Amino acid sequence: MDHTRRAALLSLLASPLTANAQEPNEQRLPIPRNPGEDTRLPNGKSQKDAIAKQNHEEALKDAGDLVAAAQELQNQLKKAGSYVVPVESVKKTEEIEKLARRIRGRLKG
What we know:
By secondary structure, the chain is mostly helical. It is 69% helix and 0% strand.
């Protein structure tokens, strides 16, 4: 391979790499300087605090949904009697389990 052809090939291979590195409009979050440092949102609030607040609000909502589902299950079982288990009741228990797992995950996470 002659010199000009090799140079052309190298410039073609290098152009996508340099094009990606030179995009000035790309926005990136600042990288914390040390691991204990908290990232700040554009409004100045702590990112960790915002995430914790959102998780708390979602856990409260899910807990309310869990209570409502448990009450619906209780009413279904009362109406059904002693020897009959409606399919809706089984589905309601699955919904309750799903909500409980979701809440547990948020509290652990």
